[in-house]
Amino acid sequence: MQLLETAFWSAGGSRHVMAERLGFSKSKANTLIAGLIDQGMLAEYGMQPSSGGRRAENLQLNAGLGALIGVDIGATSLDVAILRPDLTLLAQHGEAADVRQGPGVVLARVRTLMRELLTQSGLSAKDVLGVGIGVPGPVNFAIGQLVSPPLMPAWDSFSIRDYLREEYAAPVFVDNDVNLMALGELWRLRRSLSNFLVIKVGTGIGCGIVCHGEVYRGAAGSAGDVGHICVDQEGPRCHCGNVGCVEAMAAGPAITRMAVDAANAGESAALAACLREKGRIEATDVGEASRAGDAAANGIIQRAGNLIGQMLASVVNFFNPSHVFIGGGITGIGPLFLAAVRQSVYQRSLALSTRHLEIQYTPLGMQGGVIGAGVLALHETLKVRGVAP
Amino acid sequence: MQLLETAFWSAGGSRHVMAERLGFSKSKANTLIAGLIDQGMLAEYGMQPSSGGRRAENLQLNAGLGALIGVDIGATSLDVAILRPDLTLLAQHGEAADVRQGPGVVLARVRTLMRELLTQSGLSAKDVLGVGIGVPGPVNFAIGQLVSPPLMPAWDSFSIRDYLREEYAAPVFVDNDVNLMALGELWRLRRSLSNFLVIKVGTGIGCGIVCHGEVYRGAAGSAGDVGHICVDQEGPRCHCGNVGCVEAMAAGPAITRMAVDAANAGESAALAACLREKGRIEATDVGEASRAGDAAANGIIQRAGNLIGQMLASVVNFFNPSHVFIGGGITGIGPLFLAAVRQSVYQRSLALSTRHLEIQYTPLGMQGGVIGAGVLALHETLKVRGVAP
């Protein structure tokens, strides 16, 4: 249903504006909109500023349609959120988690959090319109299952959808975590960009692809698996079996390893102090040391940024996106990382590909995952119900 | 117009089949088809085999709509063809050319060939429905101009469209040569594949991308510029200014250079003999020596194939296509090259990306360029006329 689609992606508008966007006559739009309001799909909210005469109404998806649950399962974290149909947050909770504990342990915790957050929001399972779940591995989107996920072998072919079916009558949709970040940004942008990438740098490195205005998942659902692109033929061996994968050399664990090495080699008083006090060094600690002017920390961030930029240069030459948004845990590391990525991309990509290219941190930040999961839940639920194209 | 689109992409069918494909009622389809036949857009050809009762008609685009001209300008070659609306060839001519001579020289020759081939086909300029032209550089598709083409600097911002406007009333469309190869294969496949790549290896290396069932050109029209992806950080300097670009190390000129080196170093009697007799060695000569069992030639082909496979591995990890079709001058070099490409891709890409991946030479072969140009001409002309979506 084009009207609902427009109301959702454009975050509302007047009857007049919607009719114009869709090229419908005023009377056709009015009839269709009246029908959708009767069905409880659309509702009028607030008032739009108007240039004169009576103030125009603002049509949006009916908030009474129900709540959405967005879940973002990372390799080492877990975020659950309850969202309204306009994607604003009703309740949210995030905590550390270890995805390698397997689906039994992790999903039991997800289920508990879902219940608690619904109760907090004054809702129950029957108020749920749809559930969206992001996972850090390749997903067969049609059947909602992970396929040979390297970071989480115990999840191979596990049906998250079946696991939640008993508790929720609402449909459950599963996608790769970075695809959901891309979907979230696409929604934030009101689809004003058609061809862009979202790179997530955390425990691993993944890429969400938006092509022709839609999230692109590839022939087998593994598109965007950029973590194993080779950036050094003489590089260290990766868990995938190949050498010099960018993920093995520049993701979170590699940054931590370089920092521990620098601390132990006496190259950085700040990192050595951190290691002594906390017993470990995280990427954010390296960022903090860098901001305080620590040369070793700066060197590590520069090296990681350059390697990721080198991988990105190949991807930019191939895909020619208008924007690259970088998200995930790495965003806490500060501006030096972004500068190093940019330097490497601009140096290695063709002029035409980078002339108008923008590289920045993801505007939705750490909420991108759950918001994207909410977008997935709503959009796919409307499709399943036959009211969205 | 969905019906014309279907008739074109599906190479015809009965009223019944077309109505079914589009989800139209039988009576709606009949009315629309009668209208299009009246307008001279569709016509009935031959007869479809039928399972019983009267034999079904075969509706296709009306051959009387006019002829298409497809032009494929390569770095070192020039192909012009006159095609029917069903993309069968009426006349074709190919010859060596040097694109660096600039648009004046090259397009004057194109214009002469267009006239000659039309005459041969018993047609004149007024019978031309549309013209499609492929060029070996990045194109701003909307305005039909080349943008900073590295192989053909004299063509920068030159309007091929304006050049031909005096002679032909028909619209002229310009696109990158590899995009047209991809469009040609998409047509050959009747759009049965949605996500695949066409790699052209000749003087340079380029890639045509089909994504979500459409040719993807990127944010600035430079998508698929894979020739400058780095495959060796210690590699030789490329004309683009960077080092280790796959184009500098594995395209036609690199193969020739390696062959001349092998001949001069006394590593290959066959290549030395070729150099002595012809004064030069071409990629096809290396292929011939390889098929005759020459070890040096085999080594050169294997090395070029492995380097291109290494670049492709990155692209396959990122894009997860179902098929990669390899075309261009390299296809004359024989099966060993394809085997080396495959070996490299399967070794370096993730299992999920390659599980169902097929890598083969382009089925349309050397005619892919002019056929793709014909598809572009017809499809865009129908769009301009407001009868195709």
Q: Can you put this structure into words, describing what you see?
A:
- Chains A, B: This is ROK family protein.
- Chains A, B: It comes from Variovorax rhizosphaerae.
- Chains A, B: It holds the Pfam family ROK.
- Chains A, B: InterPro entries: ATPase_NBD, ROK, ROK_cs, WH-like_DNA-bd_sf.
- The structure is a homodimer of 389-residue chains.
- With 389 residues, the first copy, chain A, is α/β, with parallel strands linked by helices.
- The first copy, chain A, has three domains: 2-64, Orthogonal Bundle (Arc Repressor Mutant, subunit A); 66-177 and 367-384, Nucleotidyltransferase, domain 5, CATH 3.30.420; 187-366, ATPase, nucleotide binding domain (Nucleotidyltransferase, domain 5, 2-Layer Sandwich).
- Chain A contains 14 helices and 14 strands.
- In chain A, a hairpin with a 3-residue loop joins strand 3 (67-73) and strand 4.
- The radius of gyration of chain A is 23 Å and the shape is globular.
- The relative contact order of chain A is 0.12.
- The model of chain A has no long low-confidence stretch (mean pLDDT 89).
- At the A-B interface, strand 11, helix 11 and helix 13 of A face strand 11, helix 11 and helix 13 of B.
